[in-house]
User: Fold these one by one.
Assistant:
Number 1:
Amino acid sequence: TLDERNLAYLLLTEPRWVGKHDDSPESDPGFQMPLMNLQKFRGEYRGVMIGAGGFTPTSSYAAMVDDDDGSSSNNGYDALAFGRWFISNPDLPK
């Protein structure tokens, strides 16, 4: 398993991007797709997992918590990476 490797972290990109609708999370069907890699790899790796690919504020929260009561668990991502809009607009957080 991946747990046997001495990894600092595992970065997984979710395959949830559809290029035709790149301007809006509301119209891009990729943002509505379920997480694929989290379920596939969390059972194989208990270390730090970083997820990337098509996250919105709502879906990012859901990807990091697993329990119905909103408490964090060890089954979600430990951190998330955001890049697409930040790379093209570095002033976005302002």
Number 2:
Amino acid sequence: ETLFGLEGYRPPSDLLAMWWRDWSSDEAAWEAVLASGYNIILAPNSKMYLDQYQMEPHKDSKFRVQEGTVTLRATYSVAQLEGGDQVLGVQGCLWSEHFVEEEVLEYQLF
């Protein structure tokens, strides 16, 4: 396998890549994604997944949500990733199936 598919596969030159698997430096390191030359939308799991706890310890959180921690500082740190014109934007991910009430969704989002 390769960064964008199976061995021998050549993605189209106008491919738009979404980078979210930032936990695996072997599989999809930021440097490798950037070196591909493709345009990128950033949605790194450790920075842009808003359905996870926003603080530690988790017991201090107002609501019970998805395991993991994404602080406000981590979310804003996405702006420090070097990508130049290749980075077209960011996507904040909020998987609402983890929430039992709309109030939880609003709390996590805002």
